[in-house]
Design goal:
alpha/beta, Aldehyde Dehydrogenase, Chain A, domain 1, Aldehyde Dehydrogenase, Chain A, domain 2, 2 domains, 7-stranded mixed β-sheet, 6-stranded mixed β-sheet, 14 helices
């Protein structure tokens, strides 16, 4: 009943129109900026306690990206809120056409544990910029961050405007029983299906940010030294617990050995000879996932790594060679620091392997062949990705980020995020000084001639 009352209070508050003005939205964004600065040390400490993230990685991959999104939205909010003039066709002579964005109303943002600051606050920023009320639901698997976020929001906003609901499965279930005007969910495919099913009862629109097996392709023309460094960075960020991490490697046999040697060197450069001793290397979120990830390496040819520390829940960076599509590690999204390696000899074989799986959230290609780049972009469907890098395509507010098919639906970041949390109304504003008679009864041949000439 507490959750139901919270939703009702937010709906009543939204219906007053209090969230609609430019001044109110900017004030809310400024409050979030103040809170981010004030609570930054606490957020870093919480990220370390929950996931063993270093202060550097916490800032780079969570706090800094959130601040960048916030600043971008504050710079552009005024122009996004303006009417967009649309060309009016001759069938509507004489008139002006435009679209205007309105907020959905009471929105629910359900965030995951792997980037618990970034993936809570970026959708919040977009939703508030669009003029909505928001209920935030952080993950129970990142309890320290969840507590800090609760305190942050409570310090800035009344609960009828923005509120944090903590807890686990019981609270998630109770929230999904309520009627929201929009739901934004980031997490697994299985839970995403449940969210979509629950939302369908109220015809609530949904954005789903999911995942999948994202391929990383290295062809024979690639810069091996640079590719190895950027692949290792993308795979080891947050110990592989990233929805757009390279899930498996597809490499041409001519450069495979050189690439594997270079990747082993890069792992040593980044984490030393004993990576589990590094104070900057994140841990796996819990024992269940730790056991699951290590089990995926059993029976495989291990190039490096393949071991962990149960006490700290850390798994060494692991490369598996001679993997097949039938291997256990290829049956699910890994979500850990394990990288299986497969080979391909031509485009047909490459395409067959990628299409063996559902459409991925990300795809990465390392090549110096522009024809290969064009071929991949026209033949492979995926959410987004990089040419000659990994991960960094999501680190901009200038482009939307989202999945396709089983990797998700809808996008956010920047203006795309503002539009995600807005309904865009299309308006035709007619003038009164002329009223063309062709559309009215009684119809006549001369009217048909004019209509055929205009409406084509």
């Amino acid at each position: 009943m507490e959750i139901r009352k919270l939703v009702e209070r937010q709906r009543a508050y939204f219906e007053t129109g209090a969230t609609l003005s430019y001044q109110k939205r900017m004030d809310a964004l400024r409050r979030i900026r103040w809170a981010l600065n004030k609570y930054e040390p606490e957020l870093k400490q919480a990220l370390y306690r929950d996931l063993h993230k270093s202060a550097s990685e916490s800032y780079m991959a969570e706090i800094a990206m959130t601040k960048a999104e916030l600043n971008y939205c504050m710079r552009h909010l005024g122009e996004w809120m303006c009417r967009e003039e649309i060309k009016t066709g001759p069938a509507n002579f004489h008139a002006k056409s435009f679209t205007t964005a309105e907020p959905y109303g009471v929105t629910l943002v359900m965030a995951p544990w792997n980037y618990p600051v970034l993936l809570c606050l970026e959708p919040l920023i977009n939703a508030v910029a669009a003029g909505n009320c928001v209920i935030l639901k952080p993950s129970a698997y990142a309890p320290e961050v969840s507590h800090v976020l609760r305190n942050m929001v409570a310090a800035c906003f009344s609960p009828e405007y923005i509120a944090v609901v903590e807890g686990g499965r019981e609270e998630n279930t109770a929230l999904l029983e309520e009627r929201f005007d929009y739901i934004f969910f980031t997490g697994s495919v299985s839970v995403g299906k449940l969210v979509l099913e629950k939302a369908s009862r109220h015809l609530t629109p949904v954005t789903l940010e999911l995942g999948g097996k994202s391929p990383c392709i290295v062809d024979r023309t690639a810069n091996i030294r640079l590719a190895s460094r950027r692949i290792v960075f993308g795979k080891l960020l947050n110990a592989g617990q990233t929805c757009v991490a390279p899930d498996y490697l597809l490499v041409h046999p001519d450069v495979k050995d050189a690439l594997l040697r270079a990747m082993k060197r890069e792992i040593r450069k980044m984490l030393g000879e004993h990576p589990l001793a590094s104070e900057e290397y994140p841990r796996i979120v819990n024992e269940r996932h730790y056991e699951r990830i290590l089990k995926l390496t059993e029976g495989e040819r291990i190039v490096t790594g393949g071991y962990g520390n149960r006490e700290t829940l850390q798994i060494a960076p692991t490369i598996l060679d001679e993997v097949t599509l039938a291997s256990p590690v290829m049956q699910e999204e890994i979500f850990g620091p394990v990288l299986p390696v497969l080979t391909f000899r031509d485009r047909a074989e490459l395409l067959a392997i990628i299409r063996h799986f559902e459409k991925p959230l990300a795809c990465y290609l390392f090549t110096r062949d522009i024809r290969m780049e064009r071929w991949l972009l026209s033949h492979v469907s995926f959410g987004g990705g990089c040419i000659n890098d990994t991960i960094v395509h999501l680190a901009t507010s200038e482009m939307g980020f989202g999945g396709v098919g089983h990797s998700g639906m809808g996008s956010y970041h920047g203006k795309v995020g503002f539009e995600t949390f807005s309904h865009r109304k299309s308006i035709v504003r007619k003038y009164n000084w002329i009223d063309l008679p062709m559309r009215y009864h009684p119809y006549a041949k001369w009217k048909d001639i004019i209509i055929r000439g205009v409406m084509r």
